[in-house]
Amino acid sequence: MNTPHTSQPHTETTPVTGTAASILERITTERVVPTPRYAFVVREYSVWGLWVLSIAVGALAVAVTVYDALSMTYALYEATHDNFWTFLVSVLPYLWLVVFIAMTVAAVRGLRATKRGYRYSTFVILASSVVCSLIGGMLFHVLGFGFWLDNILGRQISQYMSMEKMELGMWQAPDQGRLVGMIVTTTTDATHLPSQTVAFQFEDIQGHVWTLSGNELNAHELDLLQSTNRVRLLGTTTDATTFHACGVFPWMYARAMGWGEMQHERQMFEQSMIAHRHMHMGTNGAPTAATTSTPTIPSDQLCAHLKMMNRMR
Amino acid sequence: MESPVLTDAEIVARTLRDTSAFALLVERYEAKLLRYVRRLGVRNVEDGEDVLQEIFLKVYKNLNAFDNSLSFSSWIYRIAHNEAISFYRRKSVRPEGHQIPDSDDVLMWLPENDTTSAEQLFDTSVNASALKSALAALDNKYRDAIILRYFEYKEYDEISDILKIPIGSVGTLIHRGKKQLAEVISPEHVTI
Question: Which domains are seen in chain B, by residue range?
Answer without folding.
Answer: 8-91 (1.10.1740.10), 103-191 (1.10.10.10)
